[in-house]
Structures are given as C-alpha cells and as structure tokens.
From TrEMBL:
GO molecular function: hydrolase activity
Protein name per UniProt: Cyclase family protein
Coiled-coil segments: none
Entry-linked InterPro entries: KFase/CYL, KFase_sf
Alphabetical list of PANTHER family matching this protein: CYCLASE, PTHR34861
Organism: Nocardioides astragali
The enzyme's E.C. designation: 3.5.-.-
Pfam families, A to Z: Cyclase (PF04199)
Protein keywords: Hydrolase
C-alpha cells in the first residue's frame, strides 16, 4: 500500500484490513511469547559474530539523567538520580564501617520508557487483544505483564544489526524533516544506496536513523518527546512483516511518523506491529556515531547486543545497545 492510498478519515478500517494481511497470530503456536524474536536463532547470532572487523564498539544509548527529553506527558518524566551514601559521608565517618573503609551508593527513579528502550509485546493492544490474540486483561494486570514480560527476551537480543541511515540517504544535511513518512520505497532506496551490507532479512535487528536526534541536540529538545517527528509510515506494516526482522529501532520518540497519517489517530502502526506482528520496537536510540562510522567505510552491518533490563513483568525496559564493528 502507498501513502496516497490511505483513507485519512478511516484509521479503524485501515488498521483492521492491515492486521488481517500481516497478522502472525498462531505462527509459532498458541503459547508463543517471543513474537519476531523467534527469527533470531542461535545460528543467526553465531553468524553475526563474524561481522566484527575492527573490534570498535559504539553505545547506542542516550543518557539517563534529568536533562532528558521527557516533559511529563503520560506521566513520563526524566530519571531522578539520588545519592544514598557519598564521599562526604565517608569523610565524616558516619557510615559505620570498620577499618576506614567507605563507599558510595545511589538510587534511580524513572519510567522504564523515558530514554533509550524497547517496547515489549505487552505494551500495545488492539481492541482489547494483546500479542497472539490473548485478551489484554489476562496478559497485563496491576502485577505487570504476566505472559510476555520483557524478561522473556532478556537473553535473546543479540545478533546482526543493520543501519538504514535514511536521514543521510534522503534528507538535507543528513536529517529528515518532522512529519516525513518513511515508506517501503524510501527504505529500499536507502538499502540500494548503501550497498550489499545493508541487505535486510530474517532475524536482523534494523536501526533506522532519521536525524531528528541530531537536530534536537543542536536546537534543544523542544517537542522531541511526543511531538512532530519523521518516522515509519503506516504503509510499511507489510514490509515489517515480510522481511521477518526480529526488531526495529529508531532515533525518535515514537518510531512512526508524527503527526500520524490519519486525521484522528494515535500511533496506528504500533497497533499493528506489536500485537499483530509481534514485533519489538526500540525508540530514542542514539545512532549518530555509528552512522558516521558506517558511512566512512561503507559497512552498514555489525554485531549488536541490546538486551533489555530483566525487569519482571515490564512492558518496556531501558537498554544500552552496543554495536561492535
């Protein structure tokens, strides 16, 4: 489907029709909790290890601190980091330890999706249905996600990463403007421009750089968290399912283009990708340094490890992804 074929007045119809075309419900059995992580096999991880050429590693995480982009919408705030014990306490001799030993301890309070993170399979529902068709109320309760909590993939998210630098391939000065909808044609054009190391297939973890984070660093956060942004078009749902990728992440707050491509809608691609395709989505990843390195030598695939924090029952979790080239 092309963006010009969307009926902007009918998100309900478009979501229902697209879900029917791309649904992976039952593909790995009625009890499945891994979704597209089923594509990321041991063999895929072993092969991905062979992509390491220089040994240079790149953290793809933004900072977790009070200077982050969150403004409180949906009760998402920036992390609050508090010291429990400090060097001042040690010097004052008030810590109660023997023979002169002292130390520092700290604590952090934050929403799990306030900075670089994964969306888990319990994060989004479609008409009360979670991944694999389960009733949402039987999956996520006040006790957390009792079925597809993020801990189910804590030891799985490592394999071949592929960077699609759409911002550099199609944007002005390496950045796409807010509201730019990245279509399948844009993705394929980027793959063609970057060359054979960008081929996308089963079990890959795809990283899409738009350049919006670059702009936010230069101009200030503004509405980075929840406002207008470049991102994936709703019409990429078929591509996301057909490529059989394990996961996808972007450098934006919400993965898909904002404003969304319907007159009255909120994150309709999420409503397809997570509960129907079973796809893991990463947001607010810092891809700039990696993109510079890939552009410099023309290699756009690498070994990537990106396991979420093992927080039992969480529907999303912070991550410090590391790409090794």
């Amino acid at each position: 489907m092309r963006p010009d074929q969307l009926d902007r007045s009918d998100p309900e119809g478009a979501i229902a029709a697209t879900a029917a075309r791309v649904s992976n419900w039952g593909r790995w059995g009625d009890d499945d909790v891994l979704g597209t992580m089923n594509f990321l096999t041991d063999t895929k991880r072993r092969d991905a290890a062979g992509l390491v050429r220089t040994g240079r590693s790149y953290s793809l995480s933004q900072s977790f601190d009070m200077d982050g982009p969150q403004k409180g919408w949906r009760r998402r705030t920036n992390p609050v980091h508090t010291m429990l014990d400090t060097g001042v306490d040690a010097a004052a001799g008030v810590q109660g330890f023997p023979h002169g030993i002292g130390g520092a301890d700290d604590v952090i309070a934050m929403p799990l999706q306030c900075s670089t993170q994964w969306d888990g399979l319990g994060h989004i529902f479609d008409h009360g249905r979670a991944w694999n068709g389960r009733p949402a109320e039987q999956v996520v309760t006040s006790l957390g996600d009792r079925v597809t909590g993020i801990e189910t993939v804590a030891d799985l998210v490592a394999g071949r990463g592929v960077l699609l630098d759409v911002g550099r391939a199609l944007g002005e000065d390496g950045e796409l403007p807010d509201g730019f909808a990245i279509t399948e044609e844009h993705l394929e054009a980027t793959i063609a421009a970057q060359g054979p190391t960008t081929a996308v297939g089963r079990g890959d973890i795809v990283l899409v750089r738009t350049g919006q984070l670059t702009r936010a660093r230069r101009e200030g956060w503004g509405d980075y968290a929840g406002g207008p942004a470049p991102g994936m078009s709703f019409t990429t749902a078929e591509w996301l399912q057909a490529t059989e990728i394990a996961a996808i992440a972007t450098d934006t707050w919400g993965f898909e283009v904002r404003p969304n491509e319907f007159d009255h809608a909120f994150q309709p691609l999420h409503q397809i990708a997570i509960p129907h395709i079973g796809l893991f989505i990463g947001e607010m990843w810092d891809l700039d340094a990696l993109a510079d390195a890939c552009a410099a030598d023309g290699h756009y695939d690498f070994f990537l490890t990106a396991s979420p924090l093992r927080i039992t029952g969480a529907v999303g979790a912070p991550v410090n992804p590391v790409a090794v080239r």
